[in-house]
Amino acid sequence: VQLQASGGGLVQPGGSLRLSCAASGANVNAFAIGWFRQAPGKEREGVSSISSSDDLTYYADSVRGRFTISRDNAKNTVYLQMNNLSPEDAAVYYCAEDPSDSIPLGNYYMRSFLVSYDHWGQGTLVTVSS
Protein backbone atom coordinates (compact mmCIF):
# COMPACT_ATOMS: atom_id res chain seq x y z
CA VAL A 1 0.00 0.00 0.00
CA GLN A 2 1.06 3.57 -0.64
CA LEU A 3 -0.23 6.41 1.51
CA GLN A 4 -0.27 10.08 0.55
CA ALA A 5 -0.83 12.71 3.20
CA SER A 6 -2.22 16.07 2.15
CA GLY A 7 -4.23 19.01 3.40
CA GLY A 8 -1.63 20.90 5.35
CA GLY A 9 -1.19 24.64 5.15
CA LEU A 10 -0.95 27.87 7.07
CA VAL A 11 -3.64 28.54 9.65
CA GLN A 12 -4.05 31.07 12.42
CA PRO A 13 -4.15 29.97 16.06
CA GLY A 14 -7.62 28.72 16.85
CA GLY A 15 -8.21 27.71 13.25
CA SER A 16 -8.94 24.32 11.71
CA LEU A 17 -7.53 22.04 9.04
CA ARG A 18 -8.50 18.64 7.72
CA LEU A 19 -5.69 16.34 6.70
CA SER A 20 -6.25 13.48 4.28
CA CYS A 21 -4.40 10.19 3.98
CA ALA A 22 -5.24 8.63 0.63
CA ALA A 23 -4.37 4.98 0.05
CA SER A 24 -3.51 3.28 -3.21
CA GLY A 25 -2.64 -0.31 -3.91
CA ALA A 26 -4.82 -1.68 -1.12
CA ASN A 27 -8.01 -0.96 0.75
CA VAL A 28 -7.41 1.49 3.55
CA ASN A 29 -9.71 -0.51 5.82
CA ALA A 30 -7.29 -3.44 5.74
CA PHE A 31 -5.05 -1.69 8.25
CA ALA A 32 -5.02 0.46 11.29
CA ILE A 33 -3.97 3.93 10.19
CA GLY A 34 -2.02 6.31 12.34
CA TRP A 35 -1.20 9.97 12.14
CA PHE A 36 2.19 11.10 13.38
CA ARG A 37 3.93 14.46 13.42
CA GLN A 38 7.41 15.86 13.67
CA ALA A 39 8.19 19.43 14.59
CA PRO A 40 11.59 21.00 13.84
CA GLY A 41 14.18 19.81 16.32
CA LYS A 42 11.83 17.29 17.91
CA GLU A 43 11.28 13.58 17.61
CA ARG A 44 8.39 12.18 15.62
CA GLU A 45 5.40 11.52 17.84
CA GLY A 46 2.09 9.74 17.58
CA VAL A 47 -1.01 11.88 17.24
CA SER A 48 -3.95 9.63 16.54
CA SER A 49 -4.87 6.26 15.10
CA ILE A 50 -7.90 4.23 14.07
CA SER A 51 -8.36 0.49 13.91
CA SER A 52 -9.18 -1.32 10.67
CA SER A 53 -12.75 -1.89 11.83
CA ASP A 54 -13.14 1.71 13.05
CA ASP A 55 -14.19 0.52 16.50
CA LEU A 56 -11.09 1.77 18.27
CA THR A 57 -9.37 5.12 18.16
CA TYR A 58 -6.43 6.64 19.96
CA TYR A 59 -5.56 10.26 20.61
CA ALA A 60 -2.47 11.71 22.22
CA ASP A 61 -3.26 13.72 25.34
CA SER A 62 -2.13 16.89 23.61
CA VAL A 63 -4.79 16.63 20.89
CA ARG A 64 -7.66 14.79 22.57
CA GLY A 65 -10.85 16.82 22.31
CA ARG A 66 -9.51 18.92 19.44
CA PHE A 67 -8.63 16.35 16.76
CA THR A 68 -10.89 13.71 15.25
CA ILE A 69 -9.79 10.78 13.12
CA SER A 70 -12.18 9.16 10.67
CA ARG A 71 -12.23 6.86 7.67
CA ASP A 72 -14.12 6.99 4.36
CA ASN A 73 -13.84 3.56 2.78
CA ALA A 74 -15.56 4.70 -0.40
CA LYS A 75 -12.78 7.23 -0.94
CA ASN A 76 -10.10 4.92 0.46
CA THR A 77 -9.03 7.78 2.70
CA VAL A 78 -8.48 8.47 6.39
CA TYR A 79 -8.95 12.00 7.68
CA LEU A 80 -7.65 13.97 10.62
CA GLN A 81 -9.87 16.91 11.49
CA MET A 82 -7.86 19.37 13.56
CA ASN A 83 -9.66 22.13 15.42
CA ASN A 84 -8.50 24.89 17.74
CA LEU A 85 -4.96 24.65 16.44
CA SER A 86 -2.10 26.16 18.39
CA PRO A 87 1.51 26.90 17.44
CA GLU A 88 2.45 23.72 19.32
CA ASP A 89 0.62 21.73 16.64
CA ALA A 90 2.87 23.02 13.88
CA ALA A 91 4.75 20.11 12.34
CA VAL A 92 5.02 17.85 9.34
CA TYR A 93 2.20 15.32 9.62
CA TYR A 94 2.57 11.79 8.32
CA CYS A 95 0.19 8.88 8.01
CA ALA A 96 1.20 5.25 8.17
CA GLU A 97 -0.42 1.83 7.98
CA ASP A 98 -0.21 -0.79 10.70
CA PRO A 99 -1.11 -4.29 9.47
CA SER A 100 -0.99 -5.59 13.06
CA ASP A 101 -3.89 -3.26 13.94
CA SER A 102 -2.29 -2.51 17.31
CA ILE A 103 -1.53 1.19 17.26
CA PRO A 104 -5.00 2.28 18.41
CA LEU A 105 -4.44 0.34 21.65
CA GLY A 106 -2.48 3.18 23.17
CA ASN A 107 0.65 5.23 23.46
CA TYR A 108 2.95 2.27 24.06
CA TYR A 109 1.92 0.75 20.74
CA MET A 110 2.23 4.06 18.91
CA ARG A 111 5.74 4.52 20.27
CA SER A 112 6.72 0.96 19.36
CA PHE A 113 5.38 1.47 15.87
CA LEU A 114 7.53 4.59 15.46
CA VAL A 115 10.63 2.53 16.09
CA SER A 116 9.79 -0.18 13.58
CA TYR A 117 8.11 1.66 10.68
CA ASP A 118 10.61 2.56 8.00
CA HIS A 119 8.83 3.78 4.88
CA TRP A 120 7.51 7.18 5.77
CA GLY A 121 6.09 9.31 3.00
CA GLN A 122 6.73 13.00 2.49
CA GLY A 123 4.10 14.16 4.92
CA THR A 124 2.18 17.40 4.85
CA LEU A 125 3.28 20.60 6.55
CA VAL A 126 1.02 22.34 9.06
CA THR A 127 2.00 25.86 10.06
CA VAL A 128 0.12 27.67 12.82
CA SER A 129 0.93 31.32 13.02
CA SER A 130 -0.75 34.68 13.21
Secondary-structure blueprint of this entry?
Elements (H helix, E strand, L loop, with lengths): L1 E5 L2 E3 L5 E8 L7 E7 L6 E6 L6 E3 L7 E6 L4 E6 L8 E8 L8 H10 L7 E5 L2
Parallel strand pairs: 2-10
Antiparallel strand pairs: 1-3, 3-8, 4-5, 4-9, 5-6, 7-8, 9-10
Explained architecture:
The protein has one helix at residues 107-116; strands spanning 2-6, 9-11, 17-24, 32-38, 45-50, 57-59, 67-72, 77-82, 91-98, 124-128. By secondary structure, it is mainly β. A six-stranded mixed beta sheet has the order 2-10-9-4-5-6, covered by helices on one side. A four-stranded antiparallel beta sheet has the order 1-3-8-7, with no helix packed on it. It starts with a strand and ends with a strand. The mean pLDDT is 96.
Task: Summarize the structure in short.
The chain is mainly beta. Helices cover 8% and strands 44% of the residues.
Question: Which properties best describe this structure?
Answer:
single chain; 130 residues; mainly beta; 6-stranded mixed β-sheet; 4-stranded antiparallel β-sheet; 1 helix; globular
